[in-house]
Amino acid sequence: MEMEDPEEIKHRRAQFLIYKALQQADISPRRSRPSWLKVKTNKLKIRIGKRLKRLRKTMLSTISAAEVGFHKQFISQLKALKRLFHSQEAPSIASLQPMFK
Length: 101
Description:
By secondary structure, the chain is mainly α. Helix content is 72%, strand content 0%. It has helices at residues 6-27, 36-86.
């Protein structure tokens, strides 16, 4: 029996490992196409998510606009009360600003 070259042994071992890796890759389950139901549900989730995001944005902008409007109205009422109490002459009902616009 003849002795093998160490380089030959390394080469054969590498070829064997490559063969095993390729064989294992063929055996492992391939990625199958997702069912149409999964695709539909994922698309629906995306659409719902986008709508919720849009709704949240519009609600936040509406609420902030309402807060600004309330703040302006409140400040104007305070100014009217300040004018009422600091005026020298007796105020009449006609000189008062309306309570709600």
